[in-house]
């Protein structure tokens, strides 16, 4: 079916308006999904650097509250072929007691890789989501990783 020039112009205008609404909701470079905004940051830094960067953008490291949010973040990461990334989860204050890095809420949802968390070398107090199996893994907070911000 052939589109008229007018129909094509209307379609372009609608697409432009929809992307503008997402931009206003989240800001440029952010992805709006299920009432939240996510930014997939492609440079690598340590956990504290990632927290600081997200805070400067008006958010925090992504805090995955439930299975639906987990599926959303993993789906968005896969769509971008995004590598392993930090999420806002740490047990640096008390080993084995995982808290969300920005809200300080205790974490209740986990999807660990087999054998994780293992606190290897007693120095793994932060969490990444691994790209090859999309599961959580405890790692050293000084490791340089990509990360996902949320607001």
Written overview of the protein:
- The protein is α+β, with helices and mostly antiparallel strands and 151 residues long.
- The chain has one domain: Mannose-Binding Protein A, Chain A (Roll), CATH 3.10.100.10.
- Helices cover 30% and strands 25% of the residues.
- It contains three helices and eight strands, in the order H-E-E-H-E-H-E-E-E-E-E.
- Strands 1, 2, 3, 4, 5, 6, 7 and 8 form an eight-stranded mixed beta sheet that branches.
- A hairpin with a 6-residue loop joins strand 6 (126-129) and strand 7 (136-139).
- Residues 14-23 have low confidence and may be disordered.
What composes the largest sheet?
8 strands, mixed
Helix content bin: 25-40%
* Amino-to-carboxy terminus distance: 42 Å
Fourth CATH level, the homologous superfamily: Mannose-Binding Protein A, subunit A
The H-and-E topology, N to C, reads as HEEHEHEEEEE
Question: What's the architecture in CATH terms?
Answer: Roll
Mean pLDDT: 88
Number of helices: 3
Query: Could you tell me the strand content as a percent range?
Result: 15-25%
Query: How many E-type strands?
Result: 8
Tally of individual domains:
1
Which helices and strands appear, and what pairs or packs with what?
Elements: H1 5-26, E1 31-33, E2 36-45, H2 47-56, E3 60-61, H3 67-79, E4 85-90, E5 99-100, E6 126-129, E7 136-139, E8 145-150
Parallel strand pairs: 4-8
Antiparallel strand pairs: 1-2, 2-8, 3-8, 4-5, 4-6, 6-7
């Amino acid at each position: 079916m052939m589109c008229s020039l007018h129909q094509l112009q209307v379609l372009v205008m609608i697409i432009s308006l929809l992307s503008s609404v997402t931009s206003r909701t989240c800001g440029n470079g952010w992805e709006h999904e299920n009432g939240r905004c996510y930014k997939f940051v492609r440079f690598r830094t340590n956990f504290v650097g990632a927290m600081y960067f997200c805070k400067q953008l008006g958010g925090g490291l992504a805090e995955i509250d439930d299975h639906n949010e987990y599926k959303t973040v993993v789906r968005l990461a896969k769509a971008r072929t995004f590598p392993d990334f930090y999420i806002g989860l740490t047990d640096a204050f008390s080993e084995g007691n995982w808290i969300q890095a920005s809200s300080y809420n205790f974490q209740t949802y986990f999807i660990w890789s087999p054998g994780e968390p293992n606190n290897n070398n007693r120095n793994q107090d932060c969490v990444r989501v691994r790209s090859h199996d999309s599961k959580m893994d405890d790692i050293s907070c000084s490791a340089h990783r990509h990360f996902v911000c949320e607001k």
